[in-house]
Amino acid sequence: MSLLSVEDLHVHFVSRGLDNRLRVARALNGVSFEVEEGEVLGLVGETGAGKSLTALALLGLLQPPARVTRGRIRFEDRELAPLASGARDHVRGTRVTMIPQSPQTSLDPLTRIGEQLVRMQREHRRVSKADAWRRAGEMLAEVRIPAPEQRMHAWPHELSGGMAQRVLIAMALVNQPRLVIADEPTTGLDVTVQAEVLDTLRELVRAHRMSAILITHDLGIVAHYCDRIAVMFAGVIAEQGPTRAVFREQRHPYTRALIASTPKRIAERGFGEVGGTPPDLYALPEGCLYRDRCARAADICVQPPPNVPFPGKHAALCHFATEP
Amino acid sequence: MSSLVLPLGIARRSPTFAAGAAIVGVLLLTAFLADVISPYGPTHTFPYEVLKPPGGKFLLGTDGNGMDVLSRVLHGTRYAFGISVPAGLIMVLIGVPLGVIAGYKGGVVDEALLRVLDVLRAFPSIILALAVVAATGASLVNVVLVIGFLDSPIFARVVRAEVLALRDATFVRAAIAVGNPPWRVMLVHIFPNAILGATAQLPVRMAWAVRISATLAFIGVGIQAPAPEWGAMIRQGAEYVISGEWWVATFPGLALIGLVLGFNLLGDGLTDILDPRRKATGK
Amino acid sequence: MLIARFLALRLAVAVPVVLGIVFLTFMLIRIGHQDPVAMLAGPLADASTYAMIRKELDLDRPLLQQFVTYVEHLAHGDLGRSWQGGAPVLREIVTHFPITLELVVLAVGLAAFVGIPVGIRAAMRPNGRFDQITRFGALTAFSIPTYWMGLMAILVFFYFLRWAPPPMGRVSLEVIAPPVVTGSVLVDSLISANWAAARSAAAQLVLPVACFALLAMAPIIKHTRAIAIEVFGSDYMRFARASGFSRRTLRRMALRNSLAPVLTFLGTELTSLLAAASLIEYIFSWGGLGQYGLNAILQGDFAVVQGYVLTLALFSVVVFLVVDLAVLVLEPRAQLRA
To answer: Does position B2 have pLDDT exceeding 50, yes or no?
Structure first.
């Protein structure tokens, strides 16, 4: 039984245009994937592919005009509601937590770090202030923040980007979640700091036997830190599978194009497939959503493509997946 | 058919704009047609029909001089527009270049503008207007000039903010890099875009102009009776309120509210249309 | 330490601004106004009387010199004398100021009490029904001229409904006024346990405060809403929501984070309302600073006008100072900047 299973999730945004007609942006078009215990899944894709949106759905942060038209999210055998309900949620914040982008703005500017960590605990559990405070200090030490005792009294704006990100990791892990969702956790950080932060994250995830979903557009990060990879495009998962397997041999043209466009590959083999503009979510093509950009597109692509399975929990959403 | 779609679309997109435009439009029309649609002349007195309540010959009643309230209210639109439009023009003619220069060049002009704005912030404009008009005399021209000058720094501030934001925009930097002289960059690149952003302010400022001129008239410093200016009419009507002849003050007030509201709606609607992002932040 | 430096800096900046305002007023009121000498001397005076009065009032000297003399006097706390009755301006201002202050503080208080929660509620569902209705309502209230609203209030509540007392001053003539301590009849009567006077004062206050509050409410709602929208959409609120915080905690976070900008805005409101008070006072015969200053402007009573404007300017400086100090205390980020 997987820890997390997302089945056929469809999310639409409905708005009114200038001519007063309804416009529907089909942002997620049947996202399905699973995350096992102890697994780190890398969710990649270009801007607008739907990665962050998936995270929002998992965290219950979707708000109107977003609408879930189909699909389910099951976590630990329980159904999770993707839309914001406003009620206090004991799953979010305890068993599923988030590490957001922009670390410095994600911390409450009016509360000291230590108190924020304490609040994170006391919102969900009965724990004394003293105990929570102590645990907060331990957590800060675990995320490798120097002089944690002093930092407990610091204000968010006194922290550097890297430190703030570590604090956020601490906040995400303090309640011992089963699943951590990191949304582009290294944007805005220096490359060296990026590596350190990710190393720390991986260590902790392994140590506490957690699962993680790492959302990023950086394939290098996925290659280094993720057990499995899921490639998103126009609100569907084009291909998913073990990282090694996918990097070695891609089964979906989009994944192929992505991997071919890393600087290393370009250095080796020259410029290959050209990218293109992101699809217009208000006017997606019929059948395969990638066909307008695909070098391989053929008549059959007007039909929705099958999700072709491969050994090792590998799958690709393409009519030509079996062909090299 | 398609030519109807756009205005209809705008109306749906921003009902506030549509409402504001409708109100202002109707009142503007009234200003033009005042002579035609008024039952009597605005200063025509009926000496035996003083303080008649609404109804019959005088739809809105008569005031203390025996003048028809309805005709006076209708003609009041001429004063309202006659003040707010020229004042608006002055604000734009002074405020926009000022804002562009201050924002783009900075330096002395910018410093001076900021100091003036500081002073204005601590010094409510209405008192200033009062003092100046009291000092210089209550003529239509004076009122227009005072209001126009008074609001230009505020206008300039809005434009300045836009220019500051635009100055760092890529397309501007590109224009400079290609070798355009500063005056050309200002004129061709910055000016048109800054105007767009500040356009939504104009109706709001004009609403303010109408209000201030009415307030000045009410205090006794602006346009005075028997001119059918709404503020002056309310001033006249104030003395009758206690004794219950309510119509003299009420109707001009309603007209005033209508026009000010119309301008405000128009301004709000323009903001909606020109910059929907701002609507999301609520500014 | 930080506070002392902050204060010193602000005061240093404030002085030239205030001086600028005084200068502006000084010049404005002298340019083109009807000759005050003629007014004081009366229609029967002859040339030598004119000259004498002119000399006595220093009006024969160049403008700048007059200004310098004025500032010198100011430094000694001498604001000159009113030309209507000769009372010293400083004393008159000190007596009249609390009267207006009472009105303004009560009005802003009421407006904030109602307006802030409304603004926050509207921000929770931007462009939802509540929001649209409140925005429209606020806009309409803002479009109503204060003096007209005051007149209509008198008409409806006094003339037609007979609920409110006659709008003649701050306390009914039939009641014994309490001894003046603060200048506010309400407070003074409470202090001296004069319940009849307190009740009368409260009754007289209802209409002007209500009208005034309605006017003040519109900008408060609008700004609170904008601030709340920004706070609600912020990254830290999003993170808090993703972390499953209770509604109560979320609300408290939002409120605390909105406090500083709202406070700053209230400061601006307070100062602009102090000036707008003159019209309300005029309608309700309130007899406060606003009415006093208004009359002086109309009469061309130089010294009083200068004193009035100076008071307004100083008041705004003080209010902004207090507000900024409060923000400094509330916002750790501001401390970094300061």
So the answer is: no
Bin C162: left if φ > 0, else alpha if -120 < ψ < 50, else beta: left
Largest CA distance in chain C: 86
Separation between Cα atoms, residue C268 and residue C262, nearest integer Å:
10
Least confident residue range of A124-138, B134-148, C319-333 = B134-148
User: In this predicted model, what pLDDT tens digit does every residue of A171-220 receive, in sequence order?
Assistant: 998 988 989 999 888 777 787 888 888 888 888 888 888 899 999 888 88
Percent of chain B with pLDDT over 70: 84
By three-state DSSP, how is residue C59 classified? coil
- CA-to-CA dists, residue C198 to C178, C182, C192, C202, C213, angstroms: 9, 14, 9, 6, 21
- Residue found by looking up tokens 């001089």 in the block: B65
Tokens 């040339």 belong to C47
CA distance readout (Å), C310 to A284, B34, C79, C293, C314: 66, 44, 10, 11, 6
H/E run at residue C105 = helix C89-124
Q: Are C239 and A97 a contacting pair at CB < 8 A?
A: no
Which of the residue ranges A48-52, B201-205, C187-191 would you say has the lowest mean pLDDT?
C187-191
Nearest to B132 among C28, C127, C152 (CB): C28
**Is the overall model pTM greater than 0.80, yes or no?**
no
Average pLDDT of B77-99? Answer: 87
Least confident of A185-189, A287-291, B133-137, C221-225: B133-137
User: Cβ of A98 and C257 within 8 Å?
Assistant: no
Question: Residue A264 has what pLDDT?
Answer: 72
Size of interface B-C (CB pairs under 8 A): 144
Predicted pLDDT of residue A119: 93
**Range C191-198 contact pairs with CB under 8 angstroms and sequence separation of 24 or more:** C197/C171
| One-letter identity of residue A215 | I
| Rounded Cα distance, C267 and A150, in Å | 36
- Name the nearest CA neighbour of A105 among A186, A168, A181, A184: A168
Question: In sequence order, which residues have a C-beta less than 8 Å from that of residue C19 and are 6 or more positions away?
Answer: C71
What pLDDT score does A168 carry? 92
The residue in chain B having the minimum alpha-carbon distance to the alpha carbon of residue C305 is: B131
| Tokens 């048109």, residue located | B192
For B124, other C-beta atoms within 10 Å of its C-beta total 20
- As a three-state string, the secondary structure of chain A is CCCEEEEEEEEEEEEECCCCCEEEEEEEEEEEEEECCCCEEEEEECCCCCHHHHHHHHHCCECCCEEEEEEEEEECCEECCCECCCCCCCCECCCEEEECCCHHHHCCCCCCHHHHHHHHHHCCCCCCHHHHHHHHHHHHHHCCCCCHHHHCCCCHHHCCHHHHHHHHHHHHHCCCCCEEEEECCCCCCCHHHHHHHHHHHHHHHHHCCCEEEEEECCHHHHHHHCCEEEEEECCEEEEEEEHHHHHHCCCCHHHHHHHHCCHHHHHHHCCCCCCCCCCCCCCCCCCCCCCCCCCCCCHHHHCCCCEEEECCCEEEECCCCCCC
Judged by CB atoms closer than 8 Å, whether chains meet at A119 and C256 is answered as: no
| Phi, psi (deg, nearest 5) at residue A236 | -130, 160
Measured in angstroms, the CA of A313 and the nearest CA of chain C are apart by: 30
Residue of chain A whose alpha carbon sits nearest to that of B273: A18
CA nearest C245: which of B91, A183, A111?
A: A111
| Binding-face residues of C in 252-271 toward B, CB within 8 A | 268, 271
Q: CB neighbours of B110 closer than 8 A, spacing ≥ 6? A: B102, B103, B160
Q: Using a CB-CB distance cutoff of 8 angstroms, which residues of chain A are in contact with residue B269?
A: none
